[in-house]
Structure formats: structure tokens, C-alpha cells
Amino acid sequence: MKLKEQRLLFESTKHIYESVKVHFHGVEGFDVYNPSIPFEWNGKRYIYGRVEKRHEWARSWVRLFEESGQDEWTLVPDTMIYQLEDPYISIVEKQIVLGGTHVRFNQGQLDTYYGYFYKGQDLHDLLYFTTGPDYMKDIRLVQLSGNKIGVFSRPRNEEVRRLYKSESLIGFTIINSLDELSSEVIENAPYIAGLFQEDEWGGCNQAYLLASGKIGVIGHICYKTVDESDQWTLSYMNMSFVLDPATNQFENLKIIGTRTCYPEGPAKKSDLTDCAFTSGIEMRADGKVDLYSGIGDTEVGRIVIDYPFEKEGPIVNT
Question: Collapsing DSSP states into helix, strand and coil, what is residue 64?
Fold first, then answer.
């Protein structure tokens, strides 16, 4: 089934139990969007957010916010400022691992971009430890059993399009420790075959070890629409799938959220009015999940949905 058809089916049968905007304080005059998932560390709840002025592009910082109320987060003063986009966090080897995309310019022109990675137990003093491949965003890590670490890549280039017709792929590999994480390891991660059809793209945004031993992936899946006047719109949607790390085979890929599931709001550019850039999920006491997402590259939304990995059992906290 084509992705647009899948979307129509999802939107005609979806169950959204709550839909709200998430508010950020302490950075007045700036938008906060495309955040990490919320996380708890030393008894407090935090979230990293991408902070950027509305009229600017690729000039963002990642800042740390502490929970200050229901769907309210306040800037933590005097913490590190990272020149990154689209932060994510994972707990690996009992440390916080913070990743994000660093964009490099040369004489005012976009030169390249790549992932930066930081680790540590002190949120005020994380240590930079490696860089991902050129022109690759959305690299994600997940702690597996046996002290192994799953690594997701997202190659997107002309060679990928020529060979597979999709705009990007997702790769997956396993390493033994953070010391092994390098651009070469990420670049050479075997591809997960069949995720995206022609002219589609996407990536992993957060990954979870499940009781079945498989990995639950929360990500984004996308397509582009061009109208009669040659104006185009990028459609970014929240999706999930299950990966068997032993075989690199996936199953149950499905849309779990679209821009229309979230409250209305502005977009940074006209082509981003249909953009919901996934952060990840957080379990709730009622068995459902909070799904967090950037919306319109200007704000953050939260929706409540059914747990998407029910058949594989609960999330395992390693």
C-alpha cells in the first residue's frame, strides 16, 4: 500500500486520547522544537530542546530544560550549550548519551553535517567522544542485553536513491561498547531492507529493547507532494516498527501520528505545514504512551496513543 494510502487509512481509524502543546520557558524570543524524549536523572525530569529563532535556519542550539509543571519545562541555567540540531538521549552503559546534528558552513554556504556524541553522568559536564559520518542525521543507540549496544544509521544520498529509489535507508549494527562507536562503524551498518518505497524516506528517532528480545523503533516516515504550481510540501509522520536484531528483519511498520493529530500551530516555512518530526514515546501508568514530536519546526506536541509494541511485551529497562 502506498504511503499516502496508509495515511488515509490511519487518519480514518486513529485513536488519539489527548493532544496538547508542550511549553518551554526561559528562552523567550526563540522557538523550541524537535526535542529529545523526557528522561529522569538523579531524581529530576529533564528534556533537551532545539532552540532557534523563527526566521533563522541551521543556527540552533541544544539546551537542557527541567520539568516545572504538566507539559511545562523551564531552562536549566548555567548548563552546557551545544551547537546542534534535533537532540536525542539514551541511557547506555549507565551513562547519559546525548547526540545531535552539527551543521558546518564554509563562507556562508552549507558544507556538511554530521552527528556529535557526548556522554557522562553529570548533565552539566558531558564529554564529547565521537562524530558520525558526513551527511548523516538520525543516528540512534539502544542498550541491549548482554551489555551490547544497537546502533541505527540513516544513509541518505544519490547512491541510495539510485540503488533503492527511496530517499534514505535505515541501517542497524551491534557493538560491544561505546568505545567502538565510530563514523566507520555507523557508515557500514547493514541496511534494513524494504522499509521505504520509491521517493519515501525516514529514520529511527528512539529505540527500545522489548521483553521479546526485539527492538521497538519509534521514527519518522516521509514523502513530498508537489502541486500544480510547482510548490512542494514535506509530509513528516510518526511511525513505528519492530526489528529482530538477530536477523535484521523488520515487521509491523505503521503510522502512529500525523500533523493533524496535534494542535494547530505555525510552521517555520510553507513547505513544513505538514511536518511532525518524531521524538519518541514514554510509558504511562494507564498502559498507553505519550508520543512527543516536533511540529512545524516551531513547537512541540504531545499526544496519547496506544502502546505500539503490545505483541512484543513491555519495554525493558536495562
Answer: strand
